[in-house]
Write a structure and sequence with these properties.
The protein is built from 2 helices and 4 strands, in the order βααβββ. The chain is of the alpha+beta class and about 80 residues long. The longest helix has 16 residues.
Amino acid sequence: MSSHSTAMERDESVALEIIREIAERERCEYTDLPPLYEAVDLEAATDLLESNDVRIEFDYCGYGIVLENREFTLKG
């Protein structure tokens, strides 16, 4: 299992960064992956992370994703 952490900006760029990272690992186009909003509401998650000291975890395309401290980590 490998992991990768990346700093987050706003919800749209976070979504794109997560999807691109997974597409790279899966050796496919990021447009071939299902919409990230099916796994998590990134706007709500980003708002929560900005106002609280929280950790949000969810699964997407077989990867564990952790949002915490303005960064995301992929596990899998």
